[in-house]
């Protein structure tokens, strides 16, 4: 499943997730932290996150490594033009390739208008 995070999972479609996945997200914005739990809340968060990425060519994958579990991948990526200065993800896949567990933590700072 290492190939699955060559682009951030924010670009994954809804059918990428398995049944009842364990998903959570944390957004750190200029000193404020928001936590999201559960599929519906995290999907709303991912929509918010996707809407921040106006130009996917600004996305830079910093590292992608296998986790302790052979079906787990850890990724760090960023998209500074969109205010996404540091995004850490840990994703666990089922044997069929569906996401069964996902944790996303972002450091977001609203970009300055140019």
Runs with pLDDT <50, length 5+? 1-8
Coarse structural class: mainly beta
Q: What is the string of SSEs from the N terminus onward?
A: EEHEEEE
Strand ordering within the main sheet: 2-1-6-5-4-3
Radius of gyration: 14 Å
Straight-line distance between termini: 39 Å
Mean pLDDT across residues: 75
What is the 3D shape? globular
Helix content: 10-25%
Largest sheet: 6 strands, mixed
Describe the structure.
The chain has 114 residues and is mainly β. Helix content is 12%, strand content 47%. It contains one helix and six strands; from the N terminus they run E-E-H-E-E-E-E. It has one helix at residues 39-52, and strands spanning 17-29, 32-37, 60-66, 72-79, 84-93, 99-108. The protein has a six-stranded mixed sheet with strand order 2-1-6-5-4-3, covered by helices on one side. A hairpin with a 5-residue loop joins strand 5 (84-93) and strand 6. The longest helix is centred in the middle third of the chain and has 14 residues, at 39-52. The chain is globular. The N and C termini lie far apart (39 Å).
């Amino acid at each position: 499943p290492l190939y699955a995070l060559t682009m951030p999972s924010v670009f994954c479609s809804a059918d990428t997730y398995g049944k009842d996945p364990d998903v959570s997200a944390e957004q750190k914005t200029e000193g404020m932290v928001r936590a999201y739990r559960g599929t519906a809340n995290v999907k709303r968060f991912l929509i918010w996150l996707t809407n921040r990425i106006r130009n996917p060519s600004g996305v830079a994958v910093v590292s992608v490594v296998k986790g302790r579990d052979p079906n787990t991948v850890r990724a760090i990526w960023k998209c500074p033009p969109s205010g996404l200065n540091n995004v850490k993800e840990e994703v666990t896949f089922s044997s069929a390739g569906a996401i069964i567990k996902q944790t996303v933590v972002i450091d977001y700072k609203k970009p300055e208008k140019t």
